[in-house]
Design a protein that fits this description.
The protein has two helices and four strands; from the N terminus they run ββααββ. By secondary structure, it is of the alpha+beta class. A hairpin with a 5-residue loop joins strand 3 and strand 4. It starts with a strand and ends with a strand.
Length: about 100
């Protein structure tokens, strides 16, 4: 399954458009990550714990979208958009939503 943010895939002709596909992931960050991230905010630097959660959520959302495209008979997804949002009380949950167009190349 080819996944790309571009509207086409160089060297390939899109033979059929199957439709819009999405993937969604919601992940909660635990209290220890919050505490250590707060310390990082005070002293500066990157929060490896939160970065790991972001990557996991994005990868899961992309996989879900690819599975839905495959179920539609597609072998690629073009025009992918990735959106990040905090939700829940006090922004305690992270939502990653991906969308694109399932196609046959």
């Amino acid at each position: 399954m080819l996944l790309t943010t571009t509207p086409q895939i160089e060297g390939h002709t899109i033979r059929e458009y199957k439709g819009v596909v999405t993937g969604e992931t919601i992940i909660g960050a635990n209290i220890l990550k919050d505490i250590f991230a707060g310390i990082r905010d005070l002293v500066g630097g990157r929060s490896a714990a939160y970065e790991k959660v972001l990557i996991e959520a994005k990868d899961t959302s992309m996989q879900e979208m690819a599975e839905r495209a495959r179920a539609m008979g597609a072998n690629a997804v073009v025009g992918i958009d990735v959106d990040y949002e905090t939700i829940g009380s006090n922004g305690s949950m992270l939502m990653v939503a991906t969308s694109g167009t399932a196609v046959v190349i």
